[in-house]
Amino acid sequence: MQYFIHIVTVEERLVDPDGGKFADLASAREEASQSARDLMAEELRCGRPIPLNCRAPVADGEGTILLTLPFARLVFSEVVAGQLARIDRPTTPEVHLALIERAKATFTRARSTHAEIKDGLNELRKQVRKLAEYSSALGKGSA
């Protein structure tokens, strides 16, 4: 089924224009969780604070939000995440815009990597099938 993983910051909603095919909502949730973790890890690698006030809604093809993953909940327990969500962090619009741009770049990079891995696995399967055909042909030829 086609699911769309969006990213929502305090000031903007980054819409996933292409979506992805997932076996079920649980698989889409795992991908959304990993995308959020990748974004948070990238922020840490660059010496910036984790964007705990962001969230990743997962929608179906009609745009209905089926679930939302708060970034803070991926890092902390629900109790701590709820407390953090109530903390008002003063930030400038420039900080939000920079975070949004980094989120877009990380999301695009994760999507590209996912596609490359998928293509590589498909190519590997094709090569294994060919190898099995060759092996079978060689086995029949020597009999």
Give the tags.
143 residues; alpha+beta; four-stranded antiparallel β-sheet; two-stranded antiparallel sheet; 4 helices; 58% helix
Question: Strands, helices and their partners?
Answer:
Elements: E1 2-5, E2 7-8, E3 13-14, E4 20-21, H1 25-45, E5 55-59, E6 65-70, H2 71-75, H3 78-85, H4 93-141
Antiparallel strand pairs: 1-4, 1-5, 2-3, 5-6
Helix pairs in contact: 1-4
Task: Characterise this structure.
- With 143 residues, this protein is α+β, with helices and mostly antiparallel strands.
- The chain has one domain (2-141).
- Helices cover 58% and strands 15% of the residues.
- The protein is built from four helices and six strands, in the order ββββαββααα.
- It has helices spanning 25-45, 71-75, 78-85, 93-141; strands at residues 2-5, 7-8, 13-14, 20-21, 55-59, 65-70.
- The strands form two sheets. The protein has a four-stranded antiparallel sheet with strand order 4-1-5-6.
- α1 crosses α4.
- The model has no long low-confidence stretch (mean pLDDT 82).
